[in-house]
Structure formats: C-alpha cells, structure tokens
Write a structure and sequence with these properties.
Length: 267
C-alpha cells in the first residue's frame, strides 16, 4: 500500500514500483494515475477505523502522505503528520505487516550549515520548521515500532525527487523517480527487524548527505544529478544569499529563521 499516492511524488514513482508489487493506492483524494490491477482506497488515516480497513491484507506499506509548507504551523500538521502516522503503524502492527518505508525529509537536518556537508546518517536532527519536526518525530515512531515489535522499518530521508534538478541547492541532494523507487524496493524487501534511516539521494556533486548506508544495502543510483539539470546554467549557479544559501534547508530554513545569523554560523 502506498499512502499519499495522488501526490506528485507518488505519481512519479508508481510505474517503477509496479513491476515489483501489486499496488493499493491510498489518498484523501482520488488517484488519477490508475492502471489495471491497481486497487484504490480513498480516506483519511487520521481516522483509526479507516486505517485498520486500509491495511487489511497488505504485505508492506510505503507511507508518503503528509502536509508540508515553508511556514506551516504545528496545529496544521497534527492530523496528517502525527495522528495518521500512529494510526497507520498501529494498524500495521495488528495486521502483522513487517516492512514499512516512511518518507522522511532532508528538512529534518535543514538548519545544519552547508559547510557541514556531507552529513552522516548519524548526524543529529536540526529541523528547519514544524514540517521538519514532524518528520523527525515520524522517524522516532518508526524506531519504536522496529524495536518494540520487531517490524522492519526504514526512514528514507528524501533530498529532492522530481523529473529534473530545479536549482543549485537541490543539485546537491537530488534523486530521480527511478532511483528512489529502487531504494524503496530495497527497504520493503528488508527482513531484519528494527529501524534503519537512510539518506535518499542519488549521485550528486558536492553532496549534502552521505548515502553510503543506502549503498551498503545494495542501492546503486543510475541517474546522476548533473545529467538531469532543468537548465545547464544550474551547474554554474552560486548559492542563494543569506540563510537560504547557508543552510541545507534553503528556503525552509530562511522562512523560519529569526535569530542572529552570525551566532548561528558559529554553531
């Protein structure tokens, strides 16, 4: 089952996952990109009864669904990014679903300065807003269910995934739909219990994140960021001014930063 299947990320990876899985596509709105054999489920995972019905008969879950935004307030994240995660994981536990892949985000590490790159998978979180906080919390939930119930949970800390690289910042953490799908397949084929966190990025120049943990599991990206620039000039672009160009989180970090930038730069 793929949650958030109607979103841009879900739609982009579906064709690459179909050869590996029969798909149940879940969202709060209808999914437009259905193929013969796909099963569609529409509803809100913030409702625990719906979550229970949604996972029935599934063998694995990819959880993409979330709300996000540059300056999204905490209250706006509660249903989709907190209650839905708990309802889904509890329903999966009862259904005895072992492999779960959770879409985490680079923004959980967004207030790290770019000069700290490449960040190790063990680098402490420095979330750049309430959306980012919810992703760090979601990883903690994955760790809890991995340890407490022996589920095989994987948090995929997605850099930027799309058809091409839109700007200089995202060239350092981009991943294609094809490469992300291959990493998802690896995550959902895990048999060892417990939680693994992986930076989900392809081959990027001066990468923000160390992807060696993913490669140790067999991940081998095929689409280098430098070959998929939306504009060739991106290769020669300089970082943005101010916090947007200093912090890994870019515009998210800039939108939520209200402190002294000189003090931050020393941290």
């Amino acid at each position: 089952m793929i949650t958030g299947a109607a979103g841009g990320l879900g739609q982009g990876i579906l064709d690459f996952l179909r050869p590996h899985f029969a798909l149940r596509l879940l969202d709060i709105v209808p999914v437009s990109k259905l193929h013969p054999g796909d099963e569609e489920v529409t509803g809100d995972l913030a409702d625990p009864d719906f979550a229970t019905r949604a996972v029935a008969g599934c063998e694995a879950v990819l959880h993409l669904a979330a709300v996000h935004g540059l300056t999204i307030p905490f209250e706006a994240t509660l249903n989709s990014n907190y209650r839905a995660v708990l309802n889904l994981m509890e329903a999966a536990r009862v259904e005895r679903i072992r492999p779960i892949a959770f879409a985490s985000s680079n923004h959980g590490w967004g207030f790290h300065p770019r000069t700290s790159a490449p960040l190790a998978v063990t680098s402490p979180p420095r979330p750049d807003g309430w959306y980012a906080v919810s992703k760090v919390w979601g990883e903690a939930v994955m760790a809890l269910y991995g340890d407490a119930y022996g589920m095989a949970t994987t948090s995929l800390r997605i850099g930027n995934c799309g058809p091409d690289v839109p700007d200089e910042r995202r060239s350092h953490m981009w991943i294609s739909y094809r490469d992300l799908a291959s990493l998802i397949v690896i995550a959902l084929q895990r048999e060892d219990p417990g939680h693994r966190a992986l930076f989900a990025c392809g081959e990027c120049p001066d990468p923000f994140f160390d992807t060696s943990s993913a490669k140790e599991l067999g991940f081998s990206p095929l689409d280098p960021a430098i070959d998929h620039l939306a504009d060739p000039g991106i290769a020669d672009q300089s970082p943005s001014d101010g916090m947007a160009g200093l912090a890994i989180g870019g515009a998210f970090a800039a939108a939520n930063f209200q402190a002294d930038i000189h003090n931050w730069s020393k941290s």
